[in-house]
Write a structure and sequence with these properties.
Number of helices: 4
Largest sheet: none
Order of helices and strands: HHHH
Low-confidence stretches: none
Shape: flat
Distance between the termini: 31 Å
Oligomer: single chain
């Protein structure tokens, strides 16, 4: 599904996620990277269903979480690190059309 996500319909994405959910035996104990990928796919399904604003916000949040996992940020200065600041700036640029 990841290879076809860009062209898949929202219904196809939701069906794929449902199939993964039905076959998951981890009961919430899943590799964080895999969980983030599934969350991103779900957020993208929201975008494909027409709710681009909510889906884009969810994708942006997941992107910040991914950077934080690789380069943990101090809670008192979340954007203080160069990696997090660069990611945040890129996200702001991408989200500018949404207001």
């Amino acid at each position: 599904m990841a290879a076809r996500a860009a062209t898949a319909t929202a219904e196809e994405l939701h069906a794929a996620l449902a199939a993964v959910d039905a076959g998951t035996l981890s009961d919430g104990d899943m590799d964080p990277g895999l969980l983030r990928a599934l969350d991103a796919l779900e957020a993208y399904a929201v975008v494909r269903s027409g709710d681009t604003e909510d889906g884009a916000r969810r994708l942006a949040w997941l992107a910040l979480e991914a950077v934080d996992d690789q380069h943990p940020a101090a809670l008192e200065d979340f954007l203080g690190g160069p990696e997090m600041a660069a990611s945040f700036a890129a996200i702001r640029t991408e989200l500018a059309p949404f207001g």
